Amino acid sequence: MEFALATVYRKMVRFSYTSFDRIVIRGHDRALQSPKGFAWWCRALQPDGPITDAWLGSLARRFHAGVKRFAAEHQVPIVTAHRGMDKLQTATAYRRKMTTDEGVYLILRARETAATYVSRMPYRPDPTRPDDDYRTLIRRIGWVDHYYFYLVDRFWGPISIRFSSHPPFNVTVYLNGNRWLATEATARGLTIATTDNAVVRCNDPTALQAIADSLDHRRLQSVCDHWVYRLFPVLTAEERRKSFFSYRWFLYQVEMSHNMVFTNPAKLTATLERHVDLNRRHLHPRSLKTIFRNTPYGSYKQQIAVSVRHAFGALTVLSAEYGDTRLKQYNNHQQTFRTEACVNDTTDLGVNKALENLECLRQRLLALLGQFQQAQVAVLDTTCFRGELTALAQPGKVNNVATPGIKLENERIMAALSTLPQLAHRAEGFRSADVRPIVQQCLGTPYAPPQANYDLRKLRGKGLLERIGDTRRYRPTAHGLRVAVLLTKLREQLLAPLLAATQRTRRRPKPRRPLSEPDATYFRIAQALFELCDHLALRPAA
Question: pTM of the predicted model, to two decimals?
Answer without folding.
Answer: 0.70
